C-alpha cells in the first residue's frame, strides 16, 4: 500500500515537472517566434491563438444568435430575402445596428449578404427547422443571467434563475402550478425529437414490449416510439399536469419521490430525467425501478453525459454547468451511471456509442 502511494507520488512529480518545463517553453516569446517560422508549428500556434480568441468571444456569438432569434430576424428571412433597411424596419433595430448584426450573422453562418440583400443561410435554416431549437435558444437568457457573475455562481452563493425554471426538481410536485408545468413540458417535448430519434435508433425494441416512460412529460418520446413501433403499449409516469391531450399513451400520474413505480412493464425508460437530480434521488429512483421490473426486465437511460475518458465541450462544459445551475442537477459520465446501476443489481449494462453526444448518450441494463 505504502509502496503504491510512493510510486504514485513519483509519477505525479514527474508529470508536474513535465508540464512545468513544457509551459515554460510555450510561454517564452522567443520560442514562440522560432516556432512561427515553420509551417507545421506555425499552424499549431495559429490554431491555439484562434481557440483562445474563440474562448474569449464565445459569449458575443451566443448573444448575436440570441438577437437573431428573439428579434424575429431569422423568421422574417425565412419568408424571403430582405435589404438591411427592410430587415431593420421589421425587427425594430436601427439600420446601423442591423448592418452590424447581419455582418456578424454572416460570419457565424446564419445569413449571407449578396447583392445588397440578406439571405437565410444553411445554418439559419437548420436552426429554424430543428424542433424546439428556437425555444431552447430563447430560454437560455435565464442561464446567461445566472452566469453574469460567474465567480459567485461557481461559489454557489447565488440563488439561480434556472432553479426556478425547473421547479419540479425540488420534489414539490403538488405545489407546481399548471403554467409552470406546461411551460417546461412544452420546451421539453419540442426538444425531445432529436433525443427520441437517437435513443430509438440505438436500442432494440420488441413489438410486444410493455413500456413505461418515467418522467415522460407530455409524451413526446412515447409518441415517437409509437410512430416507429405501432404495436407497442406505452404508458407515461409523471407528475400530475404533465400529460398532453390526444396522445397514444396511457398517463399514470405520480411522483417518484413519494410513490412506487407502477408494475406490469418489461421496459422502463428515463429520458433526460436523471441529470436533473442528485445522487441520492437517482439512487432511490433506480432502486424503485429495479423493484418494479420483472426478472429479465430492462431499463433504458438516455440523456447527455460527461465525456468518458476526456472531458468534452457539451457534457463537461455546457450540461455540467447547466445542471449545476439547477441546484439539484448533476451531469454524469456513462460509467458513473453504470456504477449506480450495478450497485442496485442491474446487469448486462451496455453503453451505446453516441451518434450525437451533445444530444444524448444511451445506456441499457437488465434485471437478473
Ligand atoms: C427534463 S424533463 C424530461 C421530459 C422528457 N422525458 C423529455 O426528455 O422530454 C424531466 C421530467 O421529469 C419529470 N419529473 C420530475 N420530477 C418527477 C417526479 N418526482 N416524479 C415523476 N416525474 C418527475 C418532470 O415532470 C419532467 O417531465
Description:
The chain is globular and about 65 Å long. The protein folds into two domains: 17-129, Orthogonal Bundle (Arc Repressor Mutant, subunit A); 163-367, Rossmann fold. The two termini are 36 Å apart. Helix content is 54%, strand content 13%. Helix 12 links the parallel strand 3 and strand 4 (233-238). It is built from 15 helices and nine strands. Helix 3 (39-70) packs across helix 8 (133-146) and helix 5 packs across helix 6. It has helices at 2-27, 29-35, 39-70, 73-78, 84-91, 95-108, 122-129, 133-146, 150-155, 162-165, 178-202, 220-228, 279-292, 313-325, 334-344, and strands at residues 111-114, 117-120, 210-214, 233-238, 250-253, 267-271, 298-303, 346-351, 361-367. The longest helix has 32 residues, at 39-70. The chain is an alpha/beta fold and 368 residues long. A seven-stranded mixed sheet has the order 5-4-3-6-7-9-8, sandwiched between helices. A two-stranded antiparallel ribbon has the order 1-2. Residues 168, 171, 173, 188-189, 192, 195, 215-217, 220-221, 238-239, 242, 255-257, 271-273, 276 line the site of S-adenosylmethionine.
Amino acid at each position: 500500500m505504502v509502496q503504491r502511494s510512493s510510486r504514485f507520488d513519483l509519477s505525479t512529480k514527474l508529470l508536474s515537472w513535465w508540464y512545468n518545463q513544457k509551459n515554460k517553453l510555450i510561454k517564452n516569446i522567443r520560442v514562440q517566434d522560432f516556432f512561427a517560422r515553420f509551417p507545421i508549428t506555425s499552424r499549431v500556434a495559429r490554431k491555439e491563438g484562434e481557440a483562445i480568441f474563440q474562448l474569449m468571444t464565445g459569449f458575443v456569438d451566443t448573444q448575436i444568435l440570441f438577437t437573431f432569434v428573439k428579434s424575429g430576424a431569422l423568421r422574417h428571412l425565412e419568408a424571403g430575402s430582405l435589404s438591411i433597411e427592410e430587415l431593420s424596419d421589421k425587427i425594430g433595430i436601427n439600420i446601423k445596428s442591423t448592418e452590424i448584426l447581419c455582418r456578424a450573422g454572416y460570419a457565424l453562418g446564419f445569413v449571407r449578404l449578396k447583392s445588397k440583400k440578406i439571405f437565410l443561410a444553411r445554418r439559419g435554416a437548420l436552426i429554424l427547422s430543428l424542433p424546439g431549437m428556437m425555444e431552447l435558444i430563447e430560454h437560455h437568457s435565464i442561464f446567461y443571467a445566472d452566469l453574469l457573475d460567474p465567480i459567485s455562481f461557481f461559489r454557489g452563493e447565488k440563488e439561480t434563475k434556472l432553479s426556478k425554471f425547473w421547479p419540479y426538481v425540488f420534489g414539490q410536485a403538488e405545489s407546481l402550478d399548471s403554467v409552470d408545468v406546461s411551460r417546461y413540458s412544452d420546451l421539453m417535448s419540442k426538444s425531445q425529437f432529436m433525443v427520441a430519434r437517437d435513443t430509438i435508433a440505438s436500442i432494440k425494441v420488441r413489438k410486444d414490449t410493455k413500456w413505461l416512460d418515467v418522467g415522460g412529460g407530455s409524451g413526446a418520446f412515447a409518441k415517437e416510439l409509437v410512430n416507429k413501433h405501432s404495436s407497442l403499449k406505452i404508458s407515461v409516469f409523471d407528475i400530475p399536469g404533465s400529460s398532453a391531450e390526444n396522445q397514444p399513451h396511457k398517463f399514470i400520474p405520480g411522483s417518484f419521490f413519494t410513490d412506487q413505480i407502477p408494475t406490469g412493464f418489461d421496459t422502463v425508460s428515463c429520458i433526460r430525467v436523471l441529470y436533473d437530480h442528485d445522487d441520492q434521488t437517482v439512487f432511490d429512483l433506480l432502486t424503485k425501478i429495479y423493484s418494479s421490473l420483472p426478472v429479465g426486465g430492462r431499463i433504458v437511460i438516455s440523456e447527455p453525459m460527461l465525456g468518458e475518458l476526456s472531458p468534452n465541450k457539451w457534457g463537461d462544459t455546457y450540461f455540467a454547468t447547466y445542471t449545476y445551475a439547477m441546484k439539484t442537477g448533476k451531469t454524469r459520465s456513462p460509467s458513473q451511471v453504470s456504477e449506480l446501476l450495478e450497485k442496485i443489481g442491474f446487469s448486462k449494462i451496455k453503453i451505446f456509442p453516441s451518434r450525437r453526444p451533445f444530444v444524448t448518450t444511451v445506456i441499457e441494463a437488465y434485471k437478473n
